[in-house]
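Usage

Read records sequentially. Each one opens with the input sequence:
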Amino acid sequence: MPAIRFLDSLDGIAAADWDALVPDGNPFVSHAFLHGMEAKGCLREDYGWKPYHLAVFEGEHLVAAAPTYLKGNSHGEFVFDWSWAAAWERAGGDYYPKLLVASPYSPVPGPRLLVRDGPDAGAMRNLLTATLIDEADRLGLSSIHANFLAEADLDAFDDRWLIRSDYQFHWHNRGYADFDAFLAALTAKKRKNIRQERNHAHAAGLTVEMRGGNEFSDAEWRQIHALYELTFDMKGNHAALTARFFQYLGRTLGTNVQVALARDGHDIVAMALFLRSGEALYGRYWGASVEVSGLHFELCYYRGIDYAIREGLARFEPGAQGEHKLARGFLPTPTHSRHYIAHEGFRRAVADALVQEAAHREAYREELMAHSPYADR
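and closes with the structure output:
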């Protein structure tokens, strides 16, 4: 029989053993990313994060896992359940802590039920979801939340789990030869607007480049991180990721980290940080100390599209939210989460709310698609 354990860190798991369970090389559930969060000061109990990873062993061999956390709040999740928490606490319950299956601070769809390929993969995923419910019930927790699931994960969630979907804006590679070929697929108006935005950014006299994470010195990583922090400071929010984590990612993931930079002389004045897998580019963090028209779009979107075309990547996911992405070639793409609510009456109330939410979101998607920027819409 498999041995089931809950781990308070990934320290005792070899990177190769964990990464062998990640089917698509998704960097956000890689050992390097998750362990780096823990080891470099990004996940702290006073931030609401306590690692509680589910791991299944056969003998000493790791055969299945799920990146899992005991959460003391709902920060850094991007599938918002604040209203559920408020309702349950008004009723006299304790919503927190809860169990979360996710990649911290990362609204990036990908595998969450990590298993080896093969005929037992479905059974192993089912074991993971059943074990999560058993553990939540044993601990007397209010709920479990599995966010930004891959399609392959969905069948493992039975009818005890509530279904929730949303949309992000993703760019899909239609076999474009270059950026101009992508522009040619858009309507004339959208094509003109993008060219104008790129011209504004290029006319600012800044040097723009894109480089791999292993090409930066520690001093350059500190500059990049300072720009990331500045973005949060300007919005009055807390930047959870540390400079040590940025440096670690660059050293550990190498060219699977990409940074689009704008320099004024030797100084880095704007940056957009990306991660990539074998088939996709993921936009994550942005920061700038200058205000230049079009620079955000150039670094965060157009450099990413250009890179994805050159590298032959199937898609580019630039991050959560942002209707402005539609006009720049990013189309609404569904994301999936599943939610276990322990209390039957509360579960029914949340289920009713989700039915209404789903209808509103589908109407929203249809409205967005009516404004597709592509000429063949």
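Summary fields computed downstream for this record:
- The first helix runs from residue 15 to 19.
- The mean pLDDT is 96.
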